[in-house]
């Protein structure tokens, strides 16, 4: 791998950094809590306005083709883009699922009509997207799903339920994996549909997490009519499309996980609290633990470069995405748990409680950190993928 940036890349960094400095005042820098929490309507509207501002300046979907509203930036510039967003603590864009999952999937598997219809409005956040994969009895084994779609003339009629749907309460559209051939083997009878969430028969209910967040939802489909032209990849050919989407998701989660930034915040915490009657940072065991976290975070950064190298060769996301997703989510969990050890009895105070250290942010993170080891494919599933596809181990 070549770790040097071209002259054009460095100029891109300077341009974007200057734009952020000019357009993102300090008071608008993001809080360090993921907006998947119980976000107020005012908070969401503020992020929507920021998204629109970014889009108007050409800073959304920067690596996407210009013909679909992107900037046509290189993959290395995309990496720089995410580094600069993290450094500036810029608010998260509102259409995460659309940008990370739907757009790339349609570019690879969609028809030209689908690309032109949906991709520009994903970038502009005119249409918000969610993902309909998991079901109450089909979590990690997505292919065992039971939501049915029966073809009737020019439509598919959908009945079933999806669960753990991020942003489902705000979504206009859903990428939906359904069973269209119940008699076929479970991986061969699936289809991939684009479903209008405002269709008659769609209902959404929030799922409250232990952190208090309400960003997850369950969705019910009752005789929902989906036009046949909303089929992606062919009838009963949805599994390959779904796998492509999952690869984009796992790579995206790992690439966007700012572990080095989290380590720096952990250092600041250790320097501000006491441990055994002295400043916690003076304890060599604390410094050694944080140093291990820092080494892992740095290794993750280079794993992102490895994934980038694969894409630069024109290859789709591979099992390296599972390595990224697994390592980032597990490191995030261990950092949050160690922060609670440093806080001691103060760890019992929830986010926003009077007297909570650092506003209770670490207590919130500890409660929320487990979710990332489940969402996008559990850690157990990722280990299976790595064992079989990277290490070449036999299937269990």
Summary, kept brief:
The protein is of the alpha+beta class and 396 residues long.
Question: How does this model look, in words?
Answer:
The protein has three domains: 7-94, Acyl-CoA dehydrogenase/oxidase, N-terminal domain (Butyryl-Coa Dehydrogenase, subunit A, domain 1), CATH 1.10.540.10; 129-238, Butyryl-CoA Dehydrogenase, subunit A, domain 2 (Beta Barrel); 257-390, Butyryl-CoA Dehydrogenase, subunit A, domain 3 (Up-down Bundle). It contains eleven helices and ten strands. It has helices at residues 7-23, 41-56, 75-88, 96-109, 112-124, 238-256, 259-270, 284-312, 320-343, 361-372, 379-390; strands at residues 129-132, 148-152, 155-162, 173-179, 190-196, 202-207, 216-227, 231-232, 274-275, 278-279. A four-stranded mixed beta sheet has the order 1-4-5-8. Strands 2-3-7-6 form a four-stranded antiparallel beta sheet, with no helix packed on it. Helix 9 (320-343) runs antiparallel to helix 10 (361-372) and helix 9 (320-343) runs antiparallel to helix 11. The longest helix is centred in the C-terminal third of the chain and has 29 residues, at 284-312. The mean pLDDT is 88.
């Amino acid at each position: 791998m070549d770790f040097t940036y071209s002259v054009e890349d460095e100029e891109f960094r300077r341009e974007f950094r200057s734009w952020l400095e000019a357009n993102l005042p300090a008071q608008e820098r993001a809080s360090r809590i993921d907006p998947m929490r119980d976000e107020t309507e005012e908070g969401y509207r503020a992020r929507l306005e920021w998204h629109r501002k970014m889009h108007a300046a050409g800073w959304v979907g920067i690596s996407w083709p210009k013909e679909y509203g992107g900037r046509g930036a290189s993959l290395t510039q995309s990496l720089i883009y995410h580094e600069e967003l993290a450094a500036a603590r810029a608010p998260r864009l509102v259409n995460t699922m659309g940008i990370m999952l739907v757009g790339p999937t349609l570019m690879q598997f969609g028809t030209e009509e689908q690309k032109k219809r949906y991709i520009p409005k994903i970038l502009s956040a005119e249409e918000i997207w969610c993902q309909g994969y998991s079901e109450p009895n089909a979590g990690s084994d997505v292919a065992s799903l039971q939501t049915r779609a029966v073809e009737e003339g020019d439509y598919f009629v959908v009945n079933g339920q999806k669960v753990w749907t991020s942003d489902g309460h705000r979504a206009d559209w859903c990428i939906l994996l359904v069973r269209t051939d119940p008699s076929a083997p479970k991986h061969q009878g699936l289809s991939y549909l684009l479903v209008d969430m405002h269709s008659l028969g769609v209902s959404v209910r929030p799922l409250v997490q232990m952190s208090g967040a309400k960003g997850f939802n369950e969705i019910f489909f009752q005789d929902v009519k989906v036009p046949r032209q909303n089929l992606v990849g062919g009838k009963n050919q949805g599994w390959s499309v779904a796998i492509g989407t999952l690869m984009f998701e796992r790579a995206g989660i790992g690439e966007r996980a700012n572990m080095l930034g989290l380590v720096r915040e952990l250092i600041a915490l250790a320097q501000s609290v006491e441990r055994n009657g002295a400043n916690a940072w003076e304890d060599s065991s604390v410094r050694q633990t944080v140093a291990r976290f820092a080494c892992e975070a740095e290794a993750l950064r280079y794993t992102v470069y490895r994934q980038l190298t694969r894409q630069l060769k024109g290859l789709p996301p591979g099992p390296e995405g599972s390595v990224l997703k697994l390592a980032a989510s597990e490191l995030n969990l261990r950092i949050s748990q160690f922060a609670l050890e440093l806080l001691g009895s103060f760890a019992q105070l929830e986010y926003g409680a009077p007297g909570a250290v650092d506003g209770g942010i670490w207590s919130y993170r500890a409660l929320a950190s487990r979710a990332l080891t489940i969402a996008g494919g559990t850690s157990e599933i990722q280990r299976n993928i790595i064992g079989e596809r990277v290490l070449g181990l036999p299937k269990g």
